[in-house]
Structure formats: structure tokens, C-alpha cells
Amino acid sequence: MKPHRQPLVYLLMTLPGVLFLLVAFIAPVVVMLSSSFLTQTSQGIDLPITFSNYWRVIDTPLYGHVIWITLRISLYTTLLALFVGFPIAMVIARGGPFYSRLAIIIVVAPLVVSVVIRTYGWSLLLANNKSGVLNWTLAHLGFGPIATHLMYTETAVVLGSLHVFLPMMVLPLSSAIARVNPAVEEAAGTLGANGWRLLWYIMLPLCKPGILAGASVVFSLTAASFVTPAILGGSYALMLGNLVEQQILAVYDWPFGSALAVVMVLLIYGVNGLAGWAFDSKHLPRASRGLALRRAPRLRGSLS
Amino acid sequence: MRDRNSKGFSRRSVLKGLGVAGLAAAAPTVYVKNAWAEGKSISVGTYKGTQAEYIRQQVIPKFESDFKCKVSQAEGSTLNQIAQLRIQKSNPVFSVMFLDDVGIPIARDEGLIARLDLSKIGNSQRVAKRFVMKDNYAIAFCVSSAAPYYNTESAQPLTSYAQLWSEDFRGAFMMSTPKQTQGVFLPVVAAALVTGLPLTEAQYQISKAWDKMAELKPNVQTIYESNVTAVLQVSQGQAKVGGLELSKVVLPYTTQGAPVDLCYPKEGIFGVPGCMTLVNNCPNPDLALAFMDRMLDPEIQKGLAESAYAAPTVSGIELDPAVAKLLPYPEGRLDEMKLVLLDWNVINSQRSDIIERTNQIFGVRG
Amino acid sequence: MNERIYGPIKQILNGMALLAMLFVLAPLLISLAISLSPGPFATFPPTGITLAWYAKILHSRDFLASLGLSFGLAMVSTFIALLVGVPASLAIVRGRGLPGMALVEALLLSPLLLPVLITGLSLLQFTAWTGISNTLVNMSIGYVVVIIPYIIRTVVTSLKLVNYSLEEAARTLGASALVAFMKVTLIQIAPGIMAGALFAFMISLDNLTISIWFTNAEINPLPIYMMKRMDSVFDPSIAAMSGVMLLVGTCVVLLLERLVGLRRSMGI
Prior knowledge:
The complex is a heterotrimer. Chain A is mostly helical.
């Protein structure tokens, strides 16, 4: 089955990829991470080695607050994605042929549409004025001229992120549901479980690997995003990604920007590890934290 | 250098070649005197908005066909453009960079831009002295004013900046980001209100502005980066006032009939010269200077002013009276309209502090 | 869903799914509606119906150049990633257990572990130091870094399902190693390669997060171009661009559905 006849040949086949990633990914990342311990001068990035960038993150209340907002937005988005994504995933995995096909097309098609454009669509939808689509609709239903002020709030960022990352939840979830043997549902039904109990006690635990994988991806991508919060969130929903971009492209403080980037990575890893550990120790040993981490961005890591 | 550019040209001809070739072929006049520029290309970093559109549609195609060259345009705001220059310092892509006067000392001190040879910019003769800046490191081609703007259907124009703090504007003020030049003016205004000094003196007291800025917080709906979108949103009633913002961003809406206009508070408004700079060690500097010369051509100056509502810097332009009354032009009206020009040396040193203080005050709702 | 088992839950789930799909479509449909509005500002409700904005962008050489550039970059990056990724996947599956192979696999999947924002950022700093100044090269490098793991993952998954004894049989019957691989194994993993390539292509086509650090005056991939336009124009032409992209997207998805079947290519 797995012949090792030519070990050298196999290693050679991986060589281009390995070399490429060492040079174009590992090395730059190491360089960037280490520059967070240096200082920006007008001539460039220089010694001495210092922890002052990290100290600034800890010492300034703003950054603690932004970390908290980032965490909060990402968690809400993940939970909502699970709640909104599960019914769609059920339809895709268990629905009739037409409905299931329609559902997957609707979930996948927006993936091809730029995140810029989708965010633009949301800004038209949520605008805090009479020509915002939501307000316009509500006004016509008799709720007064400007009923909602959702634009430039965390809610807007959560909605926008949910829209962008929902497929990352739906796809692993549908594939987990599809792998559940229908006979299990049948058996539970025969033994008298009603629909709720079936979902809650049978389907959800069995889909846990899919849920964890989806949640991990949605959380990680949301926590690292900066386009959606910049357009929909404005100043009251600053996320870590916005601060990184601001430090590099406007303030031009590479070391501090790098330090913020490191904090972002630690946040993502910390939460993923914690979630993996929490679910690991309880019910399902296989849905391990290793899985939660290893199956990080499964479909598209690129969505801002 | 030359090598790289010719390679660049052939690459682009694959991508965009049809358009360029079409334009070159269609150009009726052959400018023999410009033959030196044939086949060369430069990148120009311009501002955003209507003015960038005018340059894209009216200036570049004509310039390209006159010089048989290729001009690429990238839009951005001053700090972002400087960030680009820094990243590309060892191997510049841009030749001409538009920077607000705020950016000139930074770019000059870091060796990002070169001194201009004014003898190669013939039209610079007509530019008023104060617009040839920083020892010939920059030449202004337009002057915008920066002022608050308001929705003409739901609010009255501000007669004093103090009104911005009034309860009438709870959650109804859209503030421009301090990452852009126009966003630095509000702290100056706040300092003026706190200290009672005129704006020109208050700029040295920005450190006193922050408590006053914090008091503004209940009124701030958001801090925006996308100027065009923000003005549109105010015109649609998303907020009642916004700013401070450049006239060249606001007035194109006003004249297209959107219910939004600039305010002229009694304390005065700010002037922002838009400058052209030559990137240090850039590709094809001669072509770059020729492009700057074209930007100062009286016909272009008139067109720029009338489409993008920024005052020309070249003297003797006959502007459409409807536009003229909105602009600080001719030069003497700068003082007449109480346009304050800031001392950027002082503010630049505090710029990252201003950004961080603003984040700290407004980054937390509550 | 089995009606008998799930009972009324089925209706509730279906209803929720319907609402969720409406949520997914809403912002896209609204951009579409506004793209047809003749007014000078992008506002709702649309004031009529016109195709003028579509005509405008389809005649804009900048938009077309960006579109072409993005397609070109995506194709080149996908091709390079396939060239590097397919042999590596084969080695990973066939050489499993060899010393170092686990490390190699981890390394090849490692770009997935870092936010793309940070990958792009470190690449930018890196190129500033190495002095590679060709934006196209830098962007392609960034895209390839990001998409290699996707290719590896899909190809490895489909290779694991391949029946190796068929290739063995071909060898026994006298086919050379290469021919046996091409005629037997490659055909079996072709759908996997195709699905991986399509994802890689889609990721590269809309890669704002890598592109934003490298863009300059000449090189404006589509998402960057659209973001810049949002900052400069206030008419509905942006909405028209989203209309065009939505059309392209729907075509790609329908094509994928026809060719491989969406559920299959998504691993469902």
C-alpha cells in the first residue's frame, strides 16, 4: 500500500515546496516576529532588543479594549454562524435534491464575490439614514423615518463578518452531518426520541468535529479581519487588524505593528487551544484541540 | 533602472496595451519635440476623489498622447503615500507623488523626495511664491480649504466651532480620521476653544485639546476614512454635520445637487495646499517634471478648479464665477477668507500621538 | 430530512434555512438593484432602470485591466502551486513514515496557521529587505504561499482514496512508472486536483489581504481597484462592478456544479 522504494525521490518531490515556503513564508514570519522586539527610528528598524512594544500593548488601556472587542466580535460571529449555519447545513446534507442543491449554490456563490463588494452591500443595507435599505423598509412598515442605527456599531461588524464567513461554518458542518449514518436517526426515532431530542442528543454530539472545525475557522478569520470592521464598524468597533494596518500604513511603526500582530496570533491560538481543550476533556475525545487547530482555515484563509 | 522600465512597459503592454496603442495611434498631432519621452512610463500618486477622476480622464490621456508615454495613477492619502515611498525607498516605483503640505517636511527629511529643477517646470513661473515650498522640494498645484460640512435639510451651518459640541448634534457628527491631513484640524480647533487663542496660535497647544475632544464624544457617530462615502452619508441624513473635510471632497456633491455644503465658522477655516513632489531616484525624472508642468498648465488648472473645487495656484486663471466665489482665489483671497495654514513642523512631531490619543478617546464607546 | 423522525422540527429548520439564505442574498441583491439605478448617487431605493453604469465600467480600461490582471495573477499562481503541490502531495502519501516526512507535511500546511494579514505583512517586510521590487512577482509569491496548503490538502485527500494496486498492476503489465501514474492514478485524482485548483483560483482572484501590501500605481488587482473606487466615486458604478462579479461567480459555481458537483467538490 505505501511503498518506500525511493525515499530520496519522495523527498526530492517535496523539495521545491519546502524550499519555497522556508524562504517565502517561514523566514519572513520569523523576521517579522523578531522585529516586534526592536525599535523604529527614522532610518529604519533598529536595535536594541526591547520589550517596550509589548509593554505598550499591556500598559495602554486602548489596546486591552481593542483585544476585548476583537474577541467579542469574533465569538458572537462564531456563535451566530453556528446558529444560522446549522439549518442550512441540515438542508444541504439531508434536504431533497432540489432544495439541497439550491442551498449549496447560494452558500458557495458569494465566495466568489469580493469581500469588498459584500461589505459595500451591507453598508447600503444598514445605513443610518432614510435611504438605508433596512430603514427604508421599516419606514414603509410604519416604524418611523429612521428606525435603526446599526451602521458603525459592533453589530454591523458581526453581521458583515457572519455574511463573509458563514460558508466556512456551513461546509464542514454539512460534511459532518452527511457522515452521520441515517440509520442512527432512524433508530433514535424508532426508540421514541422526538425531533428536538434527536437534534440535541444525537446530531449535535455526532457533528462535534464539524462544529469545532467550522467554529475554529470562523473565529480565526473574524479575529484577523480588517476590511469589514474598517467599513462597517468605524471608530467604535476597532479590531486588532485595523490597528496593525494603521501602525504599518499610517503611523509607520513596524515594530509596534508587529507586536500587535503577534498579540493577534496569540489571541487566535489561545482561544482555539482553550476551546479544543474544553471540548476535548468532556464528551468526545476525538474532537481534540489538535483538530481544532490543525483544521484551521479549511476553505479559504484569504478572506481578509 | 532603464532596463527595469522598459521591461515594465512590455509587461504592461500585454495587460493594457490595446488601450495605449489605440490612443497613441489616434493622436492627431505628432509632437516631435517630445520624442525623448517616447515609450517611457511614470507612476503618479494622486489624491482621491473627484480630482483624481479629472486627472484620470482629462489630464493623463492627453499627456500620454502628447508625450507618447504611459502614466499610471495610484490614489491615496498623504500618510499612505509616504508609507509607500518608504517601503519602496531603495527601488522607487513612483516618480511624482502628490502630498499635502503636511507631508513635505517628513518626506524631505527622510530623503524620499528630491529638489525640483524649476527650470524644467516652465509653468512654475506663474505659481505664487508661497506655493513653491520648502526650498523647492514641492510645488503646490491646488489649494483646498478644510471646513466642517452639514446636511442642509436637517441642520443650520455652524457659525462657530463651539456649536459642534452642542446637544443638537448628539450622535450626529461624522469625524474625519487623523490619519488624513484634514483630521488633524479638529484637535487644533478644540485647543483654540479651550485656550481662547486664534487657530494660528492654538496649533502649538494641541496637548490641551484632549479633554475638550473627549467632551465631543457623545456627538461623534463615527470616525471615517472613506471621505467620499462619509459626505454622501451626511447628505442622505446619516448625520447632520461632518468634518473637517476638504472643499474638493464636499463641493462636488453640493454642485451636483446633494443637500450638503461647507460651513464657514467665525474662527476661520484651514487651507491645505496640495503639492507635487519628485520622488528621489525615481524612474524618468524628466518625464515626471513634464507631468508637473502639465498639471500647472492654465487650461488644466482651470479644469481642475472647476471640476474638483480647489483653488488654482497659478495666477491669471479666469474661473467660472459660480466656482470662483467658492474658492480662495486669486491668492489675495486666502487671507480675506481667513484660511489658516498650519505649521506642520510642530504637528508632524506629534502625529502618531494625535492618532493614538484619538483612538484612545473614540475607540471605546460609552 | 426524514419527516417521520424530525416531525415539526423539520419545518422550523427549513424556515430558518430559508431566512439564512435570504440573509446571504440580501446585500448582493441590493447592490444589484442599485447598479440599475440611473441617479448620480448610489442610494436606495433605485430611481429607475438603466444599464448605463454597466456600459461605463465595461468601457473603463482601468476596470478591465484590473479584471485581466486578477485573472492572470490567479491563473499563474494556481499553476505554480499545482506544479509544486501535486508532486509534494504524492510524496506525502506514498512516502508516509519516511523520516522527516511528517515535518515536511506540517511545513507545507503551515501557512494555514497564520492569518493572511500577517503573512502578507511579513512578506512585505521581507521583500523590502531582499529588494525584490517587481510587484507582480511579490504578489504571486504571496498568493502561492497562501494557496499551496489548499492544493496539498485536497490532493492528499483524493490520493488517499486511490487504489494503489491498480497502478501496481499496470507496472506489472509493463507500463513505466510515469505512464502507470499518468494513466491510472492521475485520472483518479483529477477531480480532487480540479477542486483544489478552483479554490486556489478563487482565493487568488479575491485576495485583498495579500494584495493590499504590494499594490502600487500600475498593479491594481480587482479587490484593490474596487476598494480604491469606493473611496473616489459616489455613483452606482461600484454596484455595477459587483453585478459583473456576481455574474462571474454564479457562472463559476454553476460550472463547478455541472463538472464535479458542488457537494462532492466541497467534501460533503
